[in-house]
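Our consortium's second objective concerns turning raw sequence data into structural hypotheses that experimental partners can test. To show how far this objective has progressed, the report includes one record in full. It was chosen at random from the queue rather than selected for favorable results. The single chain below, 154 residues long, was entered without modification.
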Amino acid sequence: MPNSLLSPLRRGTVLGFDYGLARIGVAVGEAELSTVHPLETITLISNEERFIRIASLIKEWQPKALVVGLPTHADGASDEATAQCRRFGNRLRGRFQLSVYWVDERWTSAVADSLLSEAGIFGKKRKQVLDQVAAQAILTTFFSSGACKAKLVE
């Protein structure tokens, strides 16, 4: 499927996802203000349970678009995690009929780790929020790029 660029998303709520096999970090942002907040970490086991929870979040927040972090190697090369995130994004688009943007997430875990260290959050509490803070970093990247350099799933 080809990727295309869209015009900037200027208004509305956006949900961001840091997808992982064990956990999915979720953050929420407002395009007009470029504000972003960590929301939750989904730790449900089955895909169906995960998508039920995501459906609940979409119903609650009414986002205009979804943003998924796309992991790659430092040189930008794809790997199995890249393919898994693409499948996840395609499922989001298919189930919820919302635009799905990709954002390079190569450094978001390091950013999240640094933010949590600065906030003095360690141990079990850190593990509980790391993925949602990574999703927050993904949305921050999305907004700081003008929300127009991200690629849309088609």
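The partners drew two points from this record. The helical segments are 47-61, 80-96, 108-118, 123-144. The longest strand covers residues 35-42. Both points have been shared with the crystallography group to help prioritize constructs.
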